[in-house]
């Protein structure tokens, strides 16, 4: 069971002993798809509430300084990003902490996304609604395609998405480190123009296809009777993919609307 999502890997469920093929033996103590959906929805609500806070704080200064939206909430954006990253790493290594830390991750990402979204909205009015619509539209369309069997997470499909996701992650890391030391690399990939648009479309597609792998992975975990607390882990994993997908769609829309 492979997934491109760094929060889910081949050992996520297998580290918890022998699976029961019939999860009905003790339904109150095992992971279910319905329970994972409920946890995911709860995490999304937490993230949305936190995002609304930083959004409102940012737009208090927009009328006076349209370019100062991000600066006004910079501590929340940076703090949210750091707390979210640290929390995500801890959850990946300590799965049993997911019920406690997954909500923390959701709130932290909400603060981060609210500030980032406000900055984009100040520069490109209406872009956030489009990005949110694109994100959840993609989620529901891929979920419907997966449930109908139109898209199947075959072994080759999984290998391809994992390889592509790993390549993108390495590229982002190299570019970040290079720019940190004052050496800009691959500027054309992140600028407006055909190359930048094409690269952004590819990244959005890869991020979206990771949702299919996540659906498959969680479904298999539920079928094998994984522990109940992994519903929180599954919800957290979906949040990781959705956050990535939203940011990539937001960036693509900004490139399309830029000069």
Task: Describe the protein.
The chain is mostly helical. The chain has eight helices and no strands. The model is unreliable at 17-25 (pLDDT under 50). The chain has one domain (28-257).
Mean pLDDT, as a whole number?
84
Which bin fits the share of residues in helices? over 70%
Number of helices: 8
Distance between the termini: 43 Å
What is the topology?
Layout: H1 33-59, H2 69-72, H3 74-93, H4 98-123, H5 127-148, H6 155-180, H7 194-223, H8 230-257
Helix pairs in contact: 1-4, 1-8, 3-4, 4-8, 5-7, 5-8, 6-7, 7-8
Keywords:
mainly alpha, 8 helices, globular
Brief sketch in words of this structure:
About 70% of the residues lie in helices and about 0% in strands. With about 260 residues, it is an all-alpha fold. It is globular.
């Amino acid at each position: 069971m492979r997934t491109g999502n760094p929060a889910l890997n081949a050992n996520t469920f297998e580290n918890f002993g022998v699976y029961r093929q019939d999860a009905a033996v003790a339904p109150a103590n095992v992971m279910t798809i319905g329970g994972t959906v409920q946890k995911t929805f709860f995490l999304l609500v937490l993230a949305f509430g936190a995002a609304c806070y930083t959004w409102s704080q940012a737009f208090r200064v927009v009328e006076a300084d349209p370019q100062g939206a991000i600066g006004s909430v910079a501590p929340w954006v940076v703090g949210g990003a750091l707390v979210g990253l640290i929390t995500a790493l801890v959850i990946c290594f300590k799965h049993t902490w997911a019920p406690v830390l997954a909500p923390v991750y959701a709130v932290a990402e909400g603060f981060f996304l609210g500030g980032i979204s406000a900055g984009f909205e100040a520069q490109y009015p209406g872009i956030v609604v489009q990005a949110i619509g694109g994100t959840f539209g993609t989620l529901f369309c891929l979920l419907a395609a997966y449930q109908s069997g139109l898209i199947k997470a075959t072994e080759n499909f999984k290998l391809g998405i994992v390889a592509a996701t790993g390549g993108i992650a390495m590229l982002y890391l190299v570019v970040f480190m290079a720019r940190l030391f004052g050496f800009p690399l691959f500027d054309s990939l992140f600028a407006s123009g055909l190359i930048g648009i094409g690269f952004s479309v590819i990244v959005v597609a890869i991020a979206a296809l990771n949702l299919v792998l996540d659906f498959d992975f969680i479904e298999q975990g539920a079928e094998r009777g994984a522990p109940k607390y992994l519903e929180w882990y599954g919800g957290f994993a979906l949040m990781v993919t959705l956050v990535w997908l939203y940011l990539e769609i937001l960036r693509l829309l900004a490139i399309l609307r830029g000069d």
